[in-house]
Design goal:
The complex is a heterodimer of chains A (201) and B (337). Chain A has 201 residues and is mostly helical. Chain A is built from ten helices and no strands. In chain A, helix 5 packs across helix 6. Chain B starts with 16 loop residues before the first helix and ends in a 13-residue tail after the last helix. The chains are: A mainly alpha (201), B alpha+beta (337).
Chain lengths: 201, 337
C-alpha cells in the first residue's frame, strides 16, 4: 500500500491524516502562487473559475470512489476520509461560486439574477451546490449521532448531486468532449458499482 | 524564432504596464504633432510602432511580404482609440481549434505550422476562378493598420491592431457574377500539422467553414488580415491570411484561409452546423440576444487582472453600429442571430 510507512501504526495513521488533509489544499495553493507571480494567463478570471470547478468535481468523484475502494480494494482506512473529501468538494464548489461572482460578473446582482434564472447549466450547477451545503453542515460527528439513520439518507443525496454536476459539465461542451467523456465514464463506474451491489442484494 | 515554452516567459520580463502606457502616450503625442503639421491630408497617420518586448517572438513573414508590411499605414477612420492589448496577450490567448481547444494550445502547437508558400482557391460564381499564390493575391493591395475591437462569443474581448486590406477590394478583382450572393471561406485541412483535426472527440467537422452575405463582405470594415502589431500574422493567429469582421463574434473571423467561394445560397457555417440553436449564420454582436449558455450583455476586456476584472457592457454590433446597422434593417435580430 502506498501509505505504509516505517512508523508505529498510531504515527502512521496521524501522518496519513495530515497528508490527506493538506494535499487537497495544493490546487488552491498553486492558484494563489500563480496569482501572486502574475502567471494566470490573459484571462485569469476564467482560469480560476474553471480550475475551482474542476477540483470540486475531482473531490466529489474521489468521495464517491471511497466506498468501492474500501470494498473492492480492501482500503478499509479510506472510510475515515470520506467526509473530509466530501467537504473538500464543497469547499472547491463554494470557491468556484465565489470566483464566478467576483471575477466573471463582478458582484453585479442584475447579472447574477439573470445567469441564475436563464442559463440551464448554471441552474443545475447551483442546484448541485444547494444539495451539497446541507451535507456539509451535517458532516460533523455530533450531527451524525443526532441524525442517526436519517444522516445516511440525507447523504445519499450525493448521487443526484453528482449527476447534476455532470450535467453542468456536459452542458459546457464546445469543440471537444474529451474531458466530459473521461469524467462521465468514471462517474458511470462509480454509480454503476452501487447499482450492481443493489442488484446483487 | 519559435516559442517552445510560452509559459516560461516570466512576468518580470514583460514590459511593465506603466512603462508601456507612457511609451504609447509619447508615441501618440508624436502622432498628434505629425497630424498638425500635415493638415489637409486624409485621416491617415503614419509610423506604426508597437512595443514588442525583445524576448517575445516576432513574425516577420515571408521575404516577399515584408516590404508590403513595412509600408502599411494606420487607417484612423476605422480604428478605435482604445489601447490595443499588449502583444504578449494577443499572441498567446486565442481560439484556433485546429490546434486544440485550450486558449494556450494555438501558441503551443502552431509554431511549426507552414504558411509559405500558400495557395488560395477562388471558386464558384466568379469570372476569374483558379488557384492563386498568396503573393499574387496580395500584390496589388496596400496594407492598412486598423485597430479593431474583437469580441468573442465566450464573453471576452480584446483590442487588436490588424494589418490587412478590405475584402471588398479583393472581391472586385475576381469579378463575382450576379449570382454571387454569399462568400464562403474554408480553413486548411492538414491533420499532420493541425493535431485537433485528428481528434476523435472533436465536434467540428473539418474543414472549418464560415461565410458572409455579399454586402457584409463588401462592407469597408471587413478586412483580410495578413498581420498584427506591425508584423506578419503569427501562425496561431491565423497566418498567413485570415478574415476580420469586427462587428461579429470572433468565430466568424475565419483563420488560415485556403478557399474563397462565391455562392448563391447561404453557406452552412461550422458553428451553426454543430449547434444551430446557439450559433447563427450572422453572429452579429448583440447584448440583447443571449447565447443560451453565456450572457452577451457584458464582456471581459482582456487582459484583465484579478483586482479589476475589467467587465464592460457589450455594445450592439460591437460598437460598429453606425457602419453596419443599415445592412440589417427590418431583420428580426432574435431570429437572425
Amino acid at each position: 500500500m502506498v501509505l505504509s510507512l516505517p512508523f508505529s501504526p498510531v504515527i502512521q495513521s496521524r501522518l496519513r491524516w495530515w497528508l490527506l488533509f493538506l494535499l487537497p489544499l495544493w490546487p488552491l495553493a498553486n492558484l494563489v502562487w500563480l496569482g501572486v507571480s502574475n502567471d494566470l494567463g490573459t484571462d485569469p478570471a476564467k482560469f480560476i473559475v474553471d480550475e475551482m470547478g474542476t477540483w470540486a468535481i475531482n473531490f466529489l468523484w474521489i468521495t464517491l470512489a471511497i466506498t468501492p475502494a474500501r470494498q473492492a480494494l480492501g482500503w478499509s482506512w479510506a472510510l475515515k476520509f470520506r467526509r473530509m473529501m466530501g467537504l473538500y468538494a464543497l469547499f472547491y464548489a463554494v470557491l468556484h461560486l465565489l470566483a464566478f461572482c467576483t471575477f466573471l460578473i463582478g458582484w453585479r446582482s442584475d447579472l447574477f439574477f439573470r445567469e441564475l434564472t436563464e442559463r440551464p447549466y448554471i441552474i443545475v450547477g447551483a442546484l448541485a451546490l444547494l444539495i451539497l451545503i446541507p451535507m456539509g453542515i451535517t458532516s460533523t460527528k455530533s450531527m451524525m449521532r443526532r441524525l442517526g439513520k436519517r444522516w445516511k439518507s440525507l447523504h445519499r443525496w450525493i448521487y443526484p448531486a453528482s449527476l447534476l454536476v455532470m450535467l453542468h459539465f456536459i452542458w459546457q461542451i464546445r469543440a471537444s468532449f474529451y474531458e466530459q467523456l473521461i469524467y462521465g465514464l468514471i462517474l458511470a463506474v462509480l454509480l454503476g458499482y452501487r447499482l450492481y451491489l443493489r442488484y446483487q442484494r | 524564432m519559435l516559442i517552445k515554452k510560452p509559459d516560461s516567459i516570466k512576468s518580470s520580463q514583460i514590459t511593465p504596464e506603466s512603462v508601456y502606457r507612457n511609451r504609447r502616450q509619447f508615441i501618440k503625442a508624436g502622432l498628434g504633432l505629425a497630424a498638425v503639421s500635415s493638415l489637409g491630408l486624409p485621416s491617415i497617420a503614419q509610423a506604426l510602432e508597437y512595443d514588442i518586448p525583445a524576448d517575445l517572438p516576432q513574425y516577420p513573414g515571408p521575404e516577399w511580404m515584408r516590404a508590403q508590411l513595412a509600408a502599411a499605414v494606420r487607417n484612423e477612420t476605422f480604428s478605435t482609440s482604445e489601447e490595443p492589448a499588449p502583444y504578449y496577450n494577443a499572441i498567446t490567448h486565442n481560439n484556433f481549434y485546429e490546434f486544440g481547444t485550450d486558449k494556450r494550445d494555438p501558441v503551443r502547437k502552431a509554431q511549426n505550422f507552414k504558411t509559405d508558400p500558400w495557395t488560395v482557391e477562388i471558386a464558384g460564381e466568379v469570372a476569374k476562378p483558379g488557384n492563386y499564390n498568396l503573393e499574387d493575391i496580395l500584390k496589388p493591395h496596400a496594407l492598412e493598420d486598423r485597430v479593431y475591437r474583437l469580441r468573442c462569443v465566450e464573453a471576452w474581448s480584446m483590442v487588436i491592431p490588424w494589418l490587412g486590406f478590405p475584402l471588398a477590394d479583393l472581391i472586385k478583382r475576381f469579378e463575382p457574377t450576379s449570382k454571387a450572393k454569399f462568400v464562403r471561406f474554408e480553413t486548411l485541412v492538414d491533420k499532420e500539422q493541425m493535431p485537433e483535426q485528428d481528434s476523435i472527440f472533436s465536434t467540428i467537422d473539418w474543414p472549418y467553414v464560415e461565410g458572409l452575405r455579399m454586402d457584409e463582405a463588401m462592407n469597408p470594415l471587413t478586412l483580410m488580415a495578413v498581420g498584427v502589431y506591425g508584423n506578419a500574422l503569427p501562425p496561431q493567429n491565423g497566418a498567413p491570411l485570415r478574415l476580420v469582421v469586427p462587428w461579429k463574434y470572433g468565430f466568424k473571423s475565419i483563420k488560415s484561409i485556403v478557399k474563397i467561394e462565391f455562392v448563391e445560397e447561404m453557406p452552412a457555417s461550422s458553428w451553426n452546423i454543430i449547434a444551430p440553436g446557439e450559433y447563427g449564420f450572422f453572429a452579429n454582436v448583440n447584448p440583447e440576444v443571449d447565447h443560451p449558455r453565456w450572457s452577451q450583455a457584458t464582456e471581459r476586456r482582456l487582459p484583465s487582472s484579478l483586482l479589476s476584472p475589467n467587465i464592460v457592457d457589450t455594445l450592439p454590433y460591437n460598437g460598429y453600429g453606425e457602419e453596419v446597422a443599415q445592412m440589417y434593417k427590418g431583420m428580426d435580430l432574435k431570429k437572425w442571430y
